[in-house]
Write a structure and sequence with these properties.
There is one protein chain. It contains four helices and no strands. The model has no long low-confidence stretch (mean pLDDT 80). It is mainly alpha-helical. α1 crosses α3 and α3 packs antiparallel against α4.
Amino acid sequence: GVIPATPSTYIFHFYSILTISHYAQLGILLVQLLYAILGLYSWEYIRSSHVEIALIRRQLPFRWPLLSYITARSSFFVSIVLHATQSSPFYTSVDCQSECFFLTNVAIGCSTTNLMIRTHAHIYLLHHAQSHDIYSGG
């Protein structure tokens, strides 16, 4: 019972090792990309947190579109932090795959809602400006 080694079996073994190596490199690259996104989004979140602070201090009146905006920001931030915690090189007993999936979908849904609100507002303002002839001075 020993199977003789043929050139095709060597090619198969080399191909499977090559693919596993590529998957490992891709996994490392994706984790590094995840940490880069976490750093960039954390920086932008801190830079633009004046909206949440103004709402908490009641300096900015609450409007319903802000609910979608804040939900998208916070759910994406928490999702990225949970993904980074799962991909941490340190030992973590966090298994939150379903929570990450849910929060990512909430962030996508709220971001789509924000885009829809802005598009609708832009179309409304263009229609309103044309009907009142604001730009022609008359």
